[in-house]
Amino acid sequence: MTTTTVPEKGTTGAPAIGTHVRDYLERVRGGDLGALPAVIGLVVLCAVFSILRPAFLSPINFANLFTQGAAVAVIAMGLIFVLLLGEIDLSAGFASGVCAAVLGVLLTNEGWPWYAAVLAAMATGAAIGMVIGTLVAKLGIPSFVVTLAAFLAFQGVVLLLLKEGTNISIRDQTILAIANKNMPPVLGWACVVVGVLAYAALQILQARRRAGRGLPASPMSLIAFRVGALAVISGAAVFVLNLERSRNAVIVSLKGVPIVVPVIIVLLLLWTFVLHRTAYGRHIYAVGGNAEAARRAGIDVDRIRISAFVLCSFMASIGGIIAASRANSVDPNTGGSNVLLFAVGAAVIGGTSLFGGKGRALDALLGGAVVAVIENGMGLMGYTAGVKYAVTGCVLLLAAGVDALSRKRAAATGRR
Amino acid sequence: MSQAPVLELRGIDKSFGPVQVLHDVAFSVFPGEVTALVGDNGAGKSTLVKCIGGIHPIDAGQYFFEGEKVHVGGPRDAATLGVEIVYQDLALCDNLDIVQNMFLGRERRSGLILDEATMEELAAKTLESLSVRTVKSLRQRVSSLSGGQRQTVAIAKAVLWNSKIVILDEPTAALGVAQTAQVLDLVRRLADKGLAVVLISHNMNDVFAVSDRIAALYLGRMAAQVKTSEVTHSQVVELITAGRSGELGLQNGNGATS
């Protein structure tokens, strides 16, 4: 404060792209790594696996990655809300199992139409979150304990719903399509074009409006870079997914973007919008950063807490539906074993802090991709489940370690 | 004192269970002036401030705001009147930037979407009106700010809402010499803008540097409320430690008996 410097502030000219790059590097050096570890990890893992097992790069495996990782990524996206508050939801995995069981029972045993069963499953998820959130926020039981109890209880509920462990197969074509069917290739390209154009238009419009009011805005070169990056990545992904994946294309053609991909992207856009463009999202960050400050600012902290758990369990229900669709069935293991740990791992690997206040919906996808790549790649290498678990555990530990270290570094450089 | 007080408290009593913390306290705050609220630890400064801010309901007594008797039932009521308190711990969210902190809980929206541009403009205008030129970018996270800058943001946040009274709880306690000078400068500017400022402080130098009026609490009683220009340093210290100083202060000496 002793040195009074006022560069840039209030100047109408947009800061040059060099400033942005320098600011970013400075942030990273100061301990604010963001998604950088996840992106680097993803690149390294993909490079290693594709060298060791060329099959890793085949279109069919690429498509598999999406369907394999989808449920975990969706659950992780919900967990972000809870993690942003510095809480944890250990029950999200089995909550998704319960919701999938509700879906299965209603769909197959009771013969409900798919939309009614899906709504019921989602409502179940929201209700679960409501109960957990109320116990945490109003009674003040630590979320770790509440959700650990729920973790055990839901395991039992799944068994009860499935009549002691029978397997309910899903036959409804709409539900099965989510993880098993693909979009027509043309539609995939249309989505890319519309998405990139919309993104570019939004960015330019925002920059224009800010510049018009004399506020610092992103320079055109930066916008061009962002739009270009989005176009290249989404274009490449759709191109590969539109390749013929079937071993025998004459009998059955298998190409196009799996339907689960647009589902995830819509959820990503929705939650990114909620977190960054609405007052509610702002309040989530505020409660995670400093609950007392949020309380004094007139924010209903309890309501924010409860709503985060509701959103988490709600997203878990969607994850459960996707898992049921992928497995074509619901069994006592749906949402069980490693699903929750993978989801927490995905969020943390993606750059969400376990200490609250830091994280984005996109983190869940990036981290989910890392987890999916590890599982998939190690499977191709022929490693056993034991090795896979051990490696994923180590990666999670590494990610949490990076988080803790970057916090330490941030505190040392005054950026905490 | 040509002006009427913007805030006037009369006969305020406040107890926590069997412990009576405030006894028959009278307190006035004038616009355009800095009123220093001094007193030893446990004298009731924080309790009085929390009563003003509506965090503690008062047991007895009257609360006049701009000459009218009002009832303050909670922090919202106080904020509506235009009373803002900057607490010692500042209550800022480290993970949010300056603009986000200043508008926390009262975000500007257009429809469902946050109106970031308007908020940024208003924040810039407020900081400018306070002649704050020490922050590089309004989109800086608060975590990257120094102690004095944080204090500045917290004060600017309080001023943003066209508040009439700003109460500062030990704003310089954790600051170095240069930063203290800057914050005191800012406090003075607030009063010069016509706001009523209440400054809680333990530091006599600060009190004499900026205040127009000094209110000394002693064991939950208002020992004296005097003009700064009419008292000396040692008189104020006596008021704080003994509740009286010559003609000034509580004449029965011991505030513990009633």
From TrEMBL, chain A:
Membrane topology for this entry?
A: Multi-pass membrane protein
Matching InterPro entries, A to Z? ABC_transp_permease (IPR001851)
Q: Which keywords does this chain's UniProt record carry?
A: Cell inner membrane, Cell membrane, Membrane, Sugar transport, Transmembrane, Transmembrane helix, Transport
Q: What is its main location?
A: membrane
Query: What does this chain do?
Result: Part of the binding-protein-dependent transport system for D-xylose. Probably responsible for the translocation of the substrate across the membrane.
What is the originating organism of this protein? Microtetraspora glauca
Where does the record say this protein resides?
Cell membrane
- Which Pfam families is this protein grouped with? BPD_transp_2 (PF02653)
Q: Which residues cross the membrane?
A: 33-53, 65-85, 92-108, 114-137, 144-162, 182-202, 223-243, 249-274, 306-327, 339-357
Q: What is this protein called?
A: Xylose transport system permease protein XylH
TrEMBL record, chain B:
- Residues annotated as domain ABC transporter: 7-244
Q: Which SMART domains match?
A: AAA
Extract the signal peptide range.
none
Q: Name one GO molecular function term.
A: ATP binding
Top-level taxon of the source organism = Bacteria
Asked if ATP-binding is a keyword of the record, the answer is yes
Q: Which keywords are on file for this protein? A: ATP-binding, Nucleotide-binding
**Membrane-spanning intervals of the chain:** none
Q: Which PROSITE patterns match?
A: ABC_TRANSPORTER_2 (PS50893)
Name of the protein in its database record: ATP-binding cassette domain-containing protein
Q: Which organism is it from?
A: Microtetraspora glauca
